[in-house]
Amino acid sequence: MRRWRSLIIDTWGALGYKPAFQRASEGRLSGLPGHAGASWVPEPDRRRLAAYTLLAAYDTNQAAALLGEDGVDRREYGDPALIVDQTLTHLIGETQQIVVSEADDNETARAAEALLREWAEREHLWMRMQHAERNAVLLGDTVYLLAWSRTKGRPVLKSIDPGFYFPVLPDDAVDADEYPTRVHLAWETPADPASGRKGTLRRVTYELGPVDADAAESRAYPWSTQPADITCYLTDAEWDLEHVGRAGAIDALSPGRARFRTNADGEVLDRLDLHIDFIPIIHVPNTINGAEHFGQSTLLKATQLLDDLGAADTDSQRASATTGSPIIGLSGARLPVDRASGRPLPVQVEPGMVWPLGETGQLTTVDTSAQLSELRAYVEGLRDRLSVITRLPASVLGTMDASQAASGYAMQLSFGPLDAMVRSMRLARAAKYPLLLKMVLRLYQAAGVLPSGQQPQASIAFGSYLPTDQASVLDLVVKGVTAGVLSLETGVRMLVDAGFPIEDAAEEVARIWEQRETELGTGGIVNEM
Q: pLDDT tens digits, residue range 82-94?
C-alpha cells in the first residue's frame, strides 16, 4: 500500500523511477543541481524543474554522473541529443515564413505582412525560434517574451528558459489553453564571496488588473472599438535569499523586503502600467497534453531505454577492450623477476614478444569476441526499439545503410509515425505563433506605428519536412493548373512546400501573371503585323 501512495501520475511521471527526481520533487536537493527544492518554488513546480534538469543532463551526456552512477566509466554517445536535433529539424521544416491572410488582394494585410517580415528579420526570429523550439523538444516547454523598445522603435523578442516560468494558474482551470492573469519569471543569482555579493532571487511579474481609477475607469485601445477596464502591470524586484525562506512562495514574497528595479527612463518597476490589455508572454508546449498547461519532452518516454542503451554501450566497450587485448594465462614460463623483492614483474603483451615455455608450459587466452558480437546485436536491437519509441525512422536517425534502402513507397510508409508526430506537434503550436504575431502588431499599434483598427490574422507556415520528388510535384501542379482543378495560387504553394526556391508565393503568382500578360501582348502585336 505504501508503494501505491508514492505513485504520482502526471506529465513527468515517466521519470518517477529516478531517485534524484524523487528527491528533488520532494524538496530535497541531494544529487541534483538547480533550485527545484528552493523554498520559494511552488510545490507543483518542483517536479517540473527536476524533470528539466534531468532531461538537460541526458542532452549533454551527463545523465550517468547526475544519477550518482560512475560517470567516468559509463558511456553516453549522444543519442538523446541526436533525437532532439532530428525532431527539431522535422518540426520546423526546411523553411519558415510569415503568412498574413488576404495579403494577396488586401492592402492593409499586405502592409502588415511586410512589416512583420521586416520585424522578423531584424529580430532574428528564425534563429531565436531554433533555440526556443529546441528547448520545447528537449524539456517540453519554451517561452517567448515581448517588450517594446523605444531605442529600436520596434518590439524586441527574447526566448526564456522555461525553468524561469511560473504562471499562476486558476484553481478552476479545466482548459490547457486558459491564459493566466499573472505570470512570474524568477531565477536565483548565487552569492559571490569574492565581491561580497549576497545570493538574490529576482522576480519579474506581469499581471492583468483594473485600470487605475485615479486615471480613468476604462481605456480605449487602438485594436478594439470597445473601451476596456483592464491593463497589464509590470513589477521587477529582487530579494536576498536569506530573507526569501521567511517571505513565502514565489507568489507571496514580502514587498517590504524587495528592491525594485528601474527602466531606462528612470521609472520604478513597481506595478508599472504598460498600457496594453494582454500579458506579452507566450508559452509554447511541445505536445498536446490534455488539460495540462505544460507539454511533454520528446525524450520523456525513452529515458529508460536510453539508460539501457548507455549500459549496453558501456558493456560493449569493456568487451571490445578484452577482445582487442585478450586475457592471457601462462604456465611454465620464465617471467622477469624483481631483483629486490624476488617477485615476478607484471607482464605486458606486446607485438613480437617471446615467452620461453617449459616442457609442460601452456598459454591460454580468453576469447570474448562472441560476447562482443552479442552485445553489438543487443545495442542494435535497442536502437531499433528507440526508433519505434521516438517515432524517428532509421533513415532519419542515420542508422540505416543507404545501400539497403527500401523502395520509395516503402520508405514513404516508414515516415508514417514521424508524419503523425510532427503534425501533432505543429498542432500544439497552431494557436501560439499567431498569438505572438498578434501581440507584435498590437505593440506597434500601441506605439503609434500602425493605425487603429483590427489587424489581419497572421501565422507562421513551416515548410516541408519529408523528402519529396520535386519533379513529380511539378508535373502534378502543371497538370492541375492546366486542367483548371488547381488554382495558380494553390499550385505555387505546393511548389513552396516541395522545396522549390520560391521566397514569396504571392509575389511569385504576381510575376507569373505579369509574364503571361507580356507574352500575350507580344503575341497580339506579331499577329497584327
A: 999 999 999 999 8
The residue to which cell 505504501 is assigned: 2
Residues 6+ apart with CB under 8 A from 88: 130, 133, 134, 137
Specify the range with the lowest mean pLDDT, choosing from 129-143, 216-230, 334-348. 334-348
Mean pLDDT of 262-286: 94
Q: Which of 236-240, 369-373, 509-513, 514-518 bottoms out in mean pLDDT, i.e. has the lowest?
A: 369-373
The single-letter DSSP state of residue 251 is: G
Measured distance between the N- and C-terminal CA atoms of the chain, rounded to whole angstroms? 98
CA of residue 97 relative to chain centroid, distance = 19
Non-local CB neighbours of 321 within 8 Å, separated by 6+ positions: none
Distance, CA of 481 to CA of 469 (rounded, Å): 19
Helical segments of 331-431, H only: 369-390, 394-397, 408-414, 416-428
What whole-number distance in Å separates Cα of residue 335 and Cα of residue 448?
91
Write a three-state SS string for 63-118: HHHHCCCCCCCCCCCCHHHHHHHHHHHHHHCCCEEEEECCCCCCHHHHHHHHHHHH
Which value, in Å, is the radius of gyration of the alpha carbons in the chain?
Answer: 31
Residue whose entry in the numeric block shows the C-alpha cell 526569501? 244
Average pLDDT for residues 520-527, to the nearest whole number? 51
Percent of the residues in the chain that have a pLDDT greater than 90, as a whole number: 43
* Contact in structure between 434 and 458 (CB atoms under 8 Å): yes
- Amino acid code (one letter) for 35: H
pTM, full prediction: 0.83
Q: Amino acid identity, residue 381?
A: G
3-state secondary structure 106-158: CHHHHHHHHHHHHHHHHCCHHHHHHHHHHHHHHHCEEEEEEEEECCCCEEEEE
Cα distance between residue 375 and residue 396, in whole Å: 24
Task: Read off the C-alpha cell for 296.
Answer: 511533454
Question: How many angstroms separate the CA atoms of 298 and 286, rounded?
Answer: 8
- Report d(CA 75, CA 62) in Å as an integer: 10
